[in-house]
Design a protein that fits this description.
Elements lengths: L2 H4 L2 E5 L4 E3 L2 E3 L2 E4 L2 E3 L2 E3 L2 E4 L4 E3 L2 E8 L2 E3 L2 E9 L4 E3 L2 E2 L3 E3 L4 E3 L2 E2 L2 H8 L9
Parallel strand pairs: 1-4, 2-5, 3-6, 4-7, 5-8, 6-9, 7-9, 8-10, 9-11, 10-12, 11-13, 11-14, 12-15, 13-16
Length: 127
């Protein structure tokens, strides 16, 4: 999955940047720095190979190439690339995990539970 499939990036936390607190954006977020806190986007979240997040992630779609210690919830798709590391639980209806990924946690692919968690109208979800 390329960045083009997740949408245009609206917010970037670059390499060498540190952020503590809750991060929310309506558009796509790209993280190449370090975040300590939860990250939420109404669109997509991209964690670059240098990105580190200690907190939960919630979005329509997520691409993980860096390291996350926390849970990831998606209503569309989670892709973990070969450099990705996740220590936490996954909630996503579609999941792609490349060879070489480090994953320690549980996975729930039940869309009904995810829709309820996000309190979304199921008719608004493009499948």
């Amino acid at each position: 999955m390329s960045e083009n499939k997740i949408g245009n990036v609206d917010t970037v936390l670059g390499v060498g940047s540190d952020f503590k607190g809750q991060m929310f954006a309506k558009g796509t977020i790209r993280i190449d720095g370090r975040v300590e806190g939860n990250v939420t986007s109404e669109e997509g979240i991209i964690i670059g190979d240098k990105g580190v997040v200690k907190g939960n992630i919630s979005a329509k779609s997520v691409i993980l190439s860096g390291k996350v210690t926390g849970n990831i919830s998606c209503i569309k798709r989670l892709e973990i690339t070969p450099t990705g590391q996740l220590q936490g639980d996954i909630r996503a209806p579609r999941l792609v995990i490349a060879e070489g990924v480090v994953f320690k946690g549980n996975c729930d692919m039940g869309l009904d539970k995810i829709e309820a968690e996000f309190k979304l109208d199921p008719s608004r979800i493009k499948r």
